[in-house]
Amino acid sequence: MSRHISSARVHAGLLCIVAIAVLISAVTALPKTKPSNSAPTQAQPAFPPPLFYMQYEYGSAVDPNTGLQWTGVWVPAPQAGPDNQDVCILWAGSQCTGLWKPTCSTPIVIWWLYCVAVLICVSPFIVYRYRLWKAARAQKATS
User: Fold this and answer.
1) Three-state DSSP class for 48?
2) 20 to 30 A Cα–Cα from 8, which one of 73, 101, 103, 112?
3) Structural domain boundaries, residue 86
4) How many domains does the chain fold into?
5) What span, in angstroms and rounded, lies between the C-alpha atoms of 76 and 57?
């Protein structure tokens, strides 16, 4: 039984390392931009969609071609501007509006993702403690 428990500890440690590495890479891979209130303009097609686990800057803009007002989130898009500069694209729901502005707030990881990572890291230890408690109880019952 001790070998099985030792294996569980190793797996828990590896799972923790992977979860932490994923969180760090998600946070450090983001483009660093500053807030701006500059007027949006039309952008080029094919932009990266917003990620479900990130929190973006909310905003709205008026399409200069149609006059429609769009409301959504500003998503950083590397090299998506007219001169291949980093810009922010306005997404309204799951639709890319094609409107862009030079800068926006840096997206952050949603708080509950950290809770999920902690739960993943802690759950093997909870299972380990439960198995120890169950084994001790079974041993006590046989004594």
Assistant:
1) coil
2) 112
3) 41-106
4) 2
5) 10
